[in-house]
Amino acid sequence: MSSPDQPTRRGDPPVDPRGVRFNATVTTVVLALVLLSGSPWLLAAQAMVFALGAFAGLRFAPYSVLYRAMLAHRLGEPAEREEAAPVRFSQGVGFTFAVVGAVGYFSGLTALGIVATAFALAAAFLNAAFGFCLGCEMYALIARLRNRSSQNNNQQGATA
């Protein structure tokens, strides 16, 4: 997972925002099915999807591959592209919630599984329906806080 103060790994080109929303839509459906079925295996599979996007790169994420194979060529080039690092960060956040949820379901702590899955579902739905990437916003906030902190440290070092 990229951290806000770390550049995206080489080979991560900017991403098509329509693909990001497609991924969020499929994720929303999968996570809703998890909540309806209580299937820890389906949630574990979604965790693997998140892991591929976060750790291997977005171009390896299964829903991204599906988007490129089925839709991207029909839609043409996007009007703009987004930086990949915030999207990868959000995949890492989704991975964390999916793993916690799967552990909850597998260990019999069903309430933990439901709550963690519901948080991941809410974030995916916000992106799918409104184009609001909660993980991307977290990434930007963390980056601003780190920049502010390093500026304060530099100022304190200059006055010392």
UniProtKB/TrEMBL annotation:
It comes from the Bacteria. The chain crosses the membrane at residues 20-37, 43-66, 87-106, 112-142. Keywords: Membrane, Transmembrane, Transmembrane helix. Residues 15-144 form the DUF4395 domain. Pfam families: DUF4395 (PF14340). The keyword Transferase does not apply. The keyword Transmembrane helix applies. InterPro entries: DUF4395, UCP030042. This is DUF4395 domain-containing protein. It comes from Pseudonocardia aurantiaca. The lineage of its organism: Bacteria, Bacillati, Actinomycetota, Actinomycetes, Pseudonocardiales.
